[in-house]
Write a structure and sequence with these properties.
By secondary structure, this protein is an alpha/beta fold. Helix content is 47%, strand content 17%. Helix 1 (13-25) crosses helix 4 and helix 4 (95-102) runs antiparallel to helix 5. The protein starts with a strand and ends with a helix.
């Protein structure tokens, strides 16, 4: 059993990040589901969908929920399932975060949460500063 990944994002951001990661890695080594939220979607209906998807996705080792922006509807809706002991939510989804998570499929939920945070943070840099160091 492994940790499952549930991505909750605006429009198709999550889908495109998963597609890109899949191309880079040739697979998604963890069970992954994306919930895309459009501007006209009802948050209460999305919350119900999120609960259902979490139940269906759960493999027994927990679910890491990744959202694209803290304080936004996807994050707020994801927090609706935060009462479960086996869910961790990380906001600020980016490609380095997702790649890092997929590269460590055997980690526990809490270890994977830490990898998501470090991957997301370390993936942000100023390219001009990096050029000067070369």
């Amino acid at each position: 059993m492994t940790v499952a990944i549930l991505i909750v994002s605006h429009n198709q951001i999550g889908t495109e990040l998963v597609n890109t990661a899949r191309q880079m890695l040739s697979s998604t080594p963890l069970p992954t589901k994306v919930i895309s939220i459009g501007i006209n979607d009802d948050p209460e209906q999305i919350t119900t969908q999120l609960h259902d998807e979490a139940e269906g996705l759960d493999q027994g080792n927990g679910i890491l929920v990744l959202t694209d922006m803290f304080g936004s509807t996807p994050c707020n809706v994801a927090c609706a399932v935060s009462d479960r002991e086996d869910i961790r939510i990380v906001s600020g989804l980016n490609l380095p975060m997702l790649i890092r998570v997929f590269n460590y499929p055997n980690l526990s939920l809490d270890e994977l949460k830490k990898k998501a945070l470090s991957g997301g943070q370390e993936g942000i840099t100023c390219c001009l500063d990096m050029k000067a160091k070369l």
